[in-house]
């Protein structure tokens, strides 16, 4: 199953505690908690380009499965990491954050980020 497509955020759990834990300022947390972000994924074999648009903020990360890549984190920090793929899951460690993006079915994308015991889960539905 290909990850390629455009997905709109349907629901999220744990947004505020997770954003506080990674050090995002309260005003940005307040602004961001109700924005329905759109994730666009372009997959070509093991090569991925992920564009996440949240309001006026656009974050673009490109990577190749199993190769070190520089990616931008939610706080804007750029770090070098390796994305792995296990079945329908993309896994990556961003500093202290464990990130898993899973394609549940052809139309449902679940992105879970874990920092210690704080879990931030986003469920998005395919729009194209």
Automatic annotation (TrEMBL):
GO terms for molecular function: fatty acid binding. InterPro entries: Calycin (IPR012674), Fatty_acid-bd (IPR000463), ILBP (IPR031259). Signal peptide: none annotated. It is found in: Cytoplasm. GO terms for cellular component: cytoplasm. Keywords: Cytoplasm, Lipid-binding, Transport. The keyword Transport applies. GO terms for biological process: fatty acid transport. It comes from the Eukaryota. Forms a beta-barrel structure that accommodates hydrophobic ligands in its interior. Belongs to the calycin superfamily. Fatty-acid binding protein (FABP) family. Binds free fatty acids and their coenzyme A derivatives, bilirubin, and some other small molecules in the cytoplasm. Involved in intracellular lipid transport. This is Fatty acid-binding protein, liver.
